[in-house]
Structure formats: C-alpha cells, structure tokens
Amino acid sequence: MAQRTCLVVDDSLVVRKAARRIIEGFGFSVREAKDGQEALDACRESLPDGVLLDWNMPVMDGMTFLRAARAEFGPDRPRVVVCTTEAELARIIQALEAGAQEYVMKPFDADIIRDKFSQAGLIEDAA
Fold first, then answer.
1. 19 contact partners, CB below 8 Å, separation of at least 6
2. The CATH number, out of the four listed (3.50.50.60, 3.30.40.10, 3.30.950.10, 3.40.50.2300), of the domain defined by the range 8-119
3. Fewer C-beta within 10 Å: the chain N or C terminus?
4. Tens digits of per-residue pLDDT, 88-113?
C-alpha cells in the first residue's frame, strides 16, 4: 500500500513543525503550506489523503480553502481536520458544514491528533 500523505496548513512555522513530527510518527509523508492559497496549489499538484488545516491565516483562511477544495475535489477527498483556537460551537459547526471531517483544538498533542485522524478515517484505530 502506498504511503499515506498529509498536508499541514498553518501560518505558524512552530505549529507546522510540531504537527509534522506527530503525523510523520503515524507513518505519513507530510508536506507543509503556510496559507490556504499555498495549500490549494499543493492539492492541485498532488492531492493528499489528509489535511490538517488552520483556520486563521493570511492570504486565504482555512474556511475559504476548505470551500474551494470541496468545490474542486469533492466532499471526501482530501479528509480535512480543522485545527484551531476557535472554540465556539458555532465555529465548529461552520467548519463541519463547510466540509471538514473533524475538528482539533490548539494546543494539541499526538494522542489528540491520532484520535481525530482515526475518526476522520485517515488512520486505522490501533485500539
């Protein structure tokens, strides 16, 4: 089976590096993008299995990227896990309605990412 791929999209280099380390630990090949436009370009180049997506970014924010990706690639690919400090239920619902499979609050750790990736269908549940 081909190695699974994930695109980590966040305007923070620190967050991208931390997420990359965790996700590579699950056996994924990881690419990074610093905003939604860069992420959309990366998806057009090679569609990843999953996207860990920040909400608040310059150039193109996470929701704009998500809607564009869903319009272009369909409802199920790539699997998108929104990762943000936005905690209000209304924002979570907005992300899910825009097409995200799951939602992660910052700060996150490996267990949280593993759980959300499992729920999003990106990794087999090891439990």
1. 8, 10, 30, 52, 83, 108, 113
2. 3.40.50.2300
3. N
4. 999 999 999 999 999 999 999 999 99
- pTM higher than 0.85: yes
Q: In a 10 Å sphere around its CB, with 0-12 CB exposed, 13-18 middle and 19+ buried, how is residue 125 labelled? A: exposed
What per-residue confidence (pLDDT) applies to 2?
81
pLDDT of residue 87: 84
DSSP string, 28-73: -EEEEESSHHHHHHHHHHS--SEEEEESS-SSS-HHHHHHHHHHHH
The pair of structure tokens assigned to 17 is 């590096």
Residue 71's nearest CA partner among 116, 32, 40 is 40
